[in-house]
What does this fold into?
Amino acid sequence: MTDRTAAADDAAIAAARAGDRRALDELLRAHYDRLFAVCRRLTGNDADASDACQEALIAIVRALPKFDGRSRFGTWAYRIAVNASLDELRRRRRRPRPDDGVIDQVDVASSRPDTASSVSDRIVLDAAIATLSPEFRAAVVLRDVAGLDYAEIAEALDIPPGTVRSRIARGRAALAEALGGEH
Amino acid sequence: MAHAPNDELLSAMLDGEPAPGDTAHTAECDLCQARLGQLRRAATAMATPVSPPPGHLREAAVREALLVADDATRGPGRVLQFRRRSSSAPRQRRRNPLSAAAALLVALLVGGWALSMVGRDNGNRLDETTLASPGITAAADATLGLTKDSAASEAATSTARDAGDIGVFDDIALVAKQYELDSQRALSARDATTGSASVCPAPESSTLVWHAILTFRGTSAVAHVVEFETKKVMQILVAENCSLIASQDFAPTTPR
It folds into this structure.
């Protein structure tokens, strides 16, 4: 979302509301990867992130007629993606899966030579992020993955800016402890 | 003098946000600088780029969302249905005109069979693929003449539909089927105004849309259908203490 202007979003939203399917398609594609990144960091695995991101897109389409433009579309979309991811986490808690505990299956043999260390890093990072409570995780992800400022995060999570500052600090402290000397 | 570094101050400084404390001290304090380094490494790790999702996932997600938009723009005459949540595999829509007639026939047969089964404590399990089949649901909706308008007004109803005592069950799939049938009957009869408070509260961040009392696996229980932002979920809770016995996810979807 960093390389797409708010004006481009506004134009696409207006056209999409007027029934321009191509504009809606463009809008969704333009935001998908960033929304997926947020969902991925919040859910901890690709499969749940994919489900959450798909539900987020559907929720965005359903709610677009009610989008009032008071916040940036990107911030609003992140809020929906966070809620979809948290819903996914709640469902996962009620629905143990046979692959719980396995981060992702990665075909190391067919990957680039540097993949082994990056896979290891990724597993360590996913495990460390998983130790954060969802509230702390959401705040840190919106800051460090989505690049929102504290005011935007407060708006996205519907909490006061002071709470955002506190959650980010505590989330990072917990992450630093979980990562130990790995990073 | 030894002191505990102020994480809120340091973290806010990292982000260039207003920091609550003595920033001048931090610049000269080895302890604070060391802590700042730890927090910076944590932030950098979190910001590690996520591998882009496979293209087919993006395509499937966008396609599904556009279909939802298409359905919304068609307006009245469409049906709203709920399906069981699929696996994490991309959801594909397939259209097969020949299957509609067959699905209609199966829906009539299965619907009649299911009605005869609910209320009996026989322990038989409903085939999950039957419940998951949107074609059957769509056909059943069509049979009952349900419109999207009526379904939408159901979704907008602020109070939960009280289904009363719906019988004795061993399997949540049968309860879910009863919910589906109950919703259809209620919509068909345009009696969606019934509402009352359930004995168990809806989970946080959800809205209660339907509830019933029942005997589930020999326990006096409450069945809930609750709606989160993106999902509907059925829950069975112990009536006495509202602890969760079983749950099953649904996803709002549209006819194919």
About this structure: Chain A touches chain B through 61 residues (CB under 8 Å). The domain at 6-179 of chain A is CATH 1.10.1740.10 (Rna Polymerase Sigma Factor; Chain: A). Chain A has eight helices and no strands. Chain A has one domain: 6-179.
